[in-house]
Specification:
Layout lengths: L1 H68 L1 H12 L2 H5 L9 H7 L6 H12 L7 E7 L25 E9 L2 H13 L4 E9 L5 E9 L16
Antiparallel strand pairs: 1-2, 2-4, 3-4
Length: 229
């Protein structure tokens, strides 16, 4: 009877040891599977991120290749403009290049005071019987003057903010008024007349309102781009 009990005890001990060993191996296998899964997820995320980086680099390379491919065409166009007879005929100074006319027509800075001086000393002078009664050129708020609470500074790239408005009033003959409009049309700087009012009571009087334009200079620079994960 005692021998039978010993055999039963040994069997139970062997079964317990076997269960313990199996549990340990199952735990080790689960840990290995979990670690492999974590590593696989990390590698997949790394692969996806690297693909994003390579795509951005390829976009940069494509942009640079396109820019390089059009350089010669741009240089040819500039050379053609520099020999343009029409541009050369309206140069402000004989020593200037023809391209300077384009820069003068659409300057990079508003400089409303210079335009006012041009109106007063060039476009509205030398006309028989014409007298200037009033002249007003509005400076750009936030650029040439401090921005007020009621008038915000124009945003960069805002086309409406790249306009300088003006108005003037002159007296003279109708022929003189016609010459004023011709002078505005022939101005190197593009002048857009928005309204013309002529009053003929006593000495004829003309009020002109309009606007001129400028285009802020563009800055080209290389920038670093952070690719989000």
């Amino acid at each position: 009877m005692k021998q039978g009990n010993d055999v039963a005890i040994r069997k139970r001990t062997q079964i317990a040891n076997a269960n313990k060993t199996m549990f340990i191996w199952i735990a080790i296998a689960s840990a290995l599977v979990g670690s492999a899964l974590v590593v696989s997820i990390f590698m997949a995320q790394k692969l996806i991120y690297n693909e994003k980086v390579l795509a951005e680099k390829q976009n940069t390379v494509s942009t640079l290749e396109h820019n390089n491919s059009v350089v010669k065409e741009l240089e040819d166009q500039v050379r053609v403009l520099d020999t343009n007879v029409a541009l050369s005929s309206v140069k402000a100074n004989e020593q200037d290049q023809a391209l300077q006319v384009i820069l003068d027509a659409l300057p990079s800075e508003p400089n409303s005071f210079a335009f006012g001086s041009s109106l007063q000393n060039k476009l509205l002078v030398g006309i028989d019987g014409l007298s200037i009664e009033s002249l007003q050129v509005d400076p750009i708020v936030g650029v040439e003057t401090l921005a007020s609470d009621d008038a915000a500074a124009p945003a960069e790239g805002d086309a409406a903010g790249n306009e300088i408005t003006f108005q003037f009033q002159v007296k003279g003959s109708l022929d003189a008024f016609k010459q004023v409009l011709v002078n505005l049309e022939r101005s190197i700087r593009t002048v857009q007349v928005t309204s013309v009012r002529i009053e003929i009571q006593g000495t004829p009087q003309m009020t002109v309102r309009g606007k001129v334009f400028y285009e802020p200079a563009k800055t080209i620079e290389l920038q670093d781009k952070k690719v989000p994960r």
